[in-house]
Write a structure and sequence with these properties.
Blueprint (H helix, E strand, L loop, with lengths): L7 H14 L9 E6 H5 L4 E8 L4 E10 L2 E3 L6 E15 L7 E16 L6 E18 L4 E19 L7 E22 L1
Antiparallel strand pairs: 1-2, 1-9, 2-3, 3-5, 4-5, 5-6, 6-7, 7-8, 8-9
Length: about 190
């Protein structure tokens, strides 16, 4: 009898269903979800992070950002955007106790981006791959709600194309190079299960 193993998508769906349909299996204060309010104010970037405590001092998780929006000041005027899709695997170290007090995190991140039109009409798009470090503080408001503050930086390798403007399609530059840049300005609201 030959049995097929379920694919990666089926296994991820099963894990998500387990997490949402079996909350009793996740003991108290183990799971945290959060959204960065500064990210939402940054031209509507939707974002979220899910963390799971693996010990008193460590949590692991996933985060994502998505912004499909382009803006223009008026009809026929310059267009600007901070579009992106990004995913990151995150590990946090909490010196005192998970989900309270100071923390430091490391991440591996991928980002597809299209940014430009703010100061000049130049626009850059491409993909970035790399890692980063973020540090912050989590203040407990109540048993389940926290406010998190943090700053981070990330670097790695990018493949990019620079255009003269967001809509004309005239290439000015194309290539691959290393980068280092700020990654996180965090004022987040989180819920701890």
């Amino acid at each position: 009898m030959n049995r097929r193993r379920p694919g990666l998508g089926a296994r991820l769906l099963s894990a998500l269903l387990f997490c949402f349909l079996c909350p009793a299996a996740l003991s108290a204060q183990k799971l945290q979800i959060s959204a960065n309010t500064l990210g939402l104010m940054c031209l509507g970037t939707l974002n979220g992070e899910v963390n799971y405590a693996v010990s008193q001092h460590w949590s692991v998780g996933m985060s994502g950002k998505y912004n499909p929006f382009s803006y223009s000041m008026s009809e026929g005027q310059r267009q600007f955007q901070l579009r992106q899709r990004s995913l990151a695997a995150v590990a946090r170290w909490w010196p005192w106790h998970i989900y309270s007090g100071w923390w430091v995190s490391g991440r591996l991140q991928w980002q597809e981006y299209n940014i430009g039109g703010f100061v000049s009409a130049r626009t850059e798009e491409g993909q970035r791959y790399g890692g980063g470090v973020t540090a912050g503080y989590s203040h407990m408001i109540s048993e389940h709600f926290n406010v998190e503050l943090g700053l981070g930086v990330w670097g790695g390798f990018k493949q990019y194309t620079v255009y003269a403007c967001p809509t004309c399609g005239r290439k000015l530059e194309e290539g691959q190079k290393a980068f280092i840049m700020p990654s996180d300005f965090i004022v987040a609201i989180s819920y701890v299960f």
